[in-house]
Amino acid sequence: MREYKQFSYEERIKLAQLMQSESSIPKIALGLGRSRTTIDRELKRNAAPPGEYWPDTAQKKAQERRLRGNLLDRDAALQGFVLTQLRCHYWTPEQIAGHLRSQQDSLRRISHETIYAWIYGDTQRAEKLWKFLPRHKAKRGRRKSKGAGQGRIPNRISIHERPKVVQKGKEFGHWEGDLMAFMRNSRHILVLRERTTMFTLSIPLQSKRAHNTAQALIDLLKELPPGARKTLTLDNGGEFAAHGALFESLGLQSYFCDPYASWQKGGIENTNGRLRRDLPRNTDINAMERKEFDETLENYNMTPRKKLNWRTPLQAFTKNLHRVALQT
Question: What whole-number distance in Å separates Cα of residue 74 and Cα of residue 71?
Answer without folding.
Answer: 5
